[in-house]
Amino acid sequence: TNGQFLQAQSGEGGGLTWAAATSTFIGCRITNSSSQSITSSGEDIVFAGTNSETEMYDTDNMWSSSNTTRLTFTTAGKYFVNLNYAWSGSFGTATKHDVYCVHRIGGGSGANKTVARVTDGSLQSGIENHGSMSFIIQATAGDYLRFVAVDNGNNNSTIMSDNDSATILQAYKID
Q: Which of 4, 23, 33, 49 is 20 to 30 A from 168 in CA distance terms?
């Protein structure tokens, strides 16, 4: 029937049988459903619980509504991670904005390690300024990621919500 495949059988009887296909895809896609103000010269966690994050899908419970500051790996393996984001505000010419990812190894008791960083300079006022980061990471169950935005002195910055897919976090197990 539809959705089945022919499967080889080992053992005494051998042969082929029809079997139902199963999906082993592990991944998630999370969006910000409201914009987030970024404090001047401070570090603010992107997707911090006040932003009403929206799970587009999450096949492995990596995003928890009870702890919305992090993406926690529940299955060990290699993951492709991608963050797309957009800044908005009144930007001065000397102002720089950073977005970086911190990997907490070993869960809550482990060490922090910065795995990716993007510095956005020369942002244009009055429009959405888009940026992104992508990387592959080896994770064990319990490891987690946090994404941090830094406004270096502007005090008028915002990480935009999901209108026009402005801020999206995706993680997919690749091995």
A: 23
Amino acid at 63: W
- Tokens read off for 41: 């010269």
CB 80 within 8 A of CB 136: yes
Tokens of 56: 């587009």
Q: Which amino acid is at 77?
A: G
pTM for the full model? 0.76
- Per residue of the chain (175 residues), give pLDDT as tens: 777 888 888 877 778 888 887 778 999 988 877 777 777 666 777 776 555 566 788 899 998 767 777 888 999 999 999 988 887 766 655 456 777 777 776 655 556 777 777 776 666 666 777 788 888 989 989 888 888 877 766 556 777 776 655 688 899 999 8
Residue 36: strand, helix, or coil: strand
